[in-house]
TrEMBL record:
Family note: Belongs to the DeoC/FbaB aldolase family. DeoC type 2 subfamily.
GO biological process: carbohydrate catabolic process; deoxyribonucleotide catabolic process
One Pfam family matching this protein: DeoC
UniProt keyword list: Lyase, Schiff base
Pathway given in the UniProt record: Carbohydrate degradation; 2-deoxy-D-ribose 1-phosphate degradation; D-glyceraldehyde 3-phosphate and acetaldehyde from 2-deoxy-alpha-D-ribose 1-phosphate: step 2/2
Superkingdom in the source lineage: Bacteria
A single Gene Ontology CC term: cytoplasm
Name of the featured protein: Deoxyribose-phosphate aldolase
Keyword Kinase found: no
Catalytic activity line of the entry: 2-deoxy-D-ribose 5-phosphate = D-glyceraldehyde 3-phosphate + acetaldehyde
GO MF term (any one): deoxyribose-phosphate aldolase activity
EC number, as in UniProt: 4.1.2.4
Native source species: Natronogracilivirga saccharolytica
Length: 299
């Protein structure tokens, strides 16, 4: 898709965004609707392990948790995906084959994005060849903050092409973008360049996902859909640890984009620690009793 002129600033009303988010936090979901929403949120989780000590055993454990979140109750759904480094993709893909759980891989010199474009493309191709269904790339924040918007557009477009059949999730690292206007502009650039999803954060920088930043990105997705007819996915990542917050995010998605986006195909949580809290709340809704956290695997 041809790059629009991104030099124009789309103003974002900070007060308005934060007031609207405050209203989302007042919404309450009860009884059967709450159980449905908790299960839906669990289906949207990307379980992630992105540490230097990611051994084959740790990846196997993560895959097992993805396949069997709570073995005592087969009615509890699986998660959407697991996310690993490229050198662990083949192992994960082999374990999860035929399960419907996607294998995502961070690439493009994650988390800094400071590699050459050639090396980043090579890393993407390697991950896809190893079996990745999704690629999570990071934009060059240094180029964006210098106003080199064509550079960012071109790198996203090139990496999208390198993904082949795999979906591309573009990480903005919103904690480094400084303003809501920058978040909006980076969202627009990524979508016009070919992103299938836009994602807040690597989880390595604070602040990570916040509801106001996510709302700015959701509104960018809405406007892009109105202009192009294309539905782009959204993934807040980092800092979402409890079910109550997750449900507020789902309310925000529904009221901003509509029910069509309430699917793992178009909305994800990058929040491994969230999974166990969702499981605890689901069991509570079904049995009337909280289960000890010790009954759920750490993942």
């Amino acid at each position: 898709m041809k790059m629009p002129d991104f030099r124009q600033i789309i103003p974002v009303d900070q007060v308005g965004v934060e007031e609207r988010v405050a209203k989302f936090r007042t919404r309450s979901i009860k009884k059967e609707s709450k159980l449905f929403a908790l299960k839906l949120a669990l289906e949207m989780v990307d379980l992630t392990t992105l540490e230097g000590m990611d051994s084959p055993g740790k990846v196997r454990q993560l895959c097992y948790k993805a396949l069997y979140p709570y073995e005592q109750d087969p009615d509890i759904p699986q998660v959407a995906a697991i996310c690993v480094y490229p050198n662990r993709v083949r192992l994960a893909a082999g374990i999860l084959k035929g399960s419907g759980i996607q294998v995502a891989s961070v690439a493009t010199s994650f988390p800094s994005g400071m590699g050459t474009l050639e090396s980043r493309i090579d890393e993407v191709r390697y991950a896809v060849d190893e079996g990745a269904d999704e690629i999570d790339m990071v934009i060059s924040r240094w180029a964006f903050l210098k106003g080199e918007y064509a550079h960012v557009f071109d790198e996203v477009a090139a990496i999208k092409e390198a993904c082949g059949h795999a979906h591309l999730k573009v990480i903005l690292e919103t904690g480094e973008l400084q303003t809501y206007e920058n978040v909006r502009k980076a969202s627009d650039i990524s979508m016009y360049a070919g992103a299938d999803f836009i994602k807040t954060s690597t989880g390595k920088i604070s602040p990570a996902a916040t509801m106001p930043v996510t709302l700015v990105m959701l509104e960018a997705i809405r406007d892009f859909y109105f202009k192009t007819g294309q539905k782009i996915g959204m993934k807040p990542a980092g800092g979402i640890r409890d079910s109550k917050t997750a449900l507020h995010y789902l309310v925000m998605v529904k009221e901003t984009l509509g029910a069509d986006w309430l699917t793992p195909d178009l909305f994800r949580f990058g929040a491994s620690s969230l999974a166990n809290d969702l499981l605890m709340q689901i069991v509570k809704q079904k049995t009337g009793h909280y289960q000890s956290p010790d009954y759920f695997s750490i993942g």
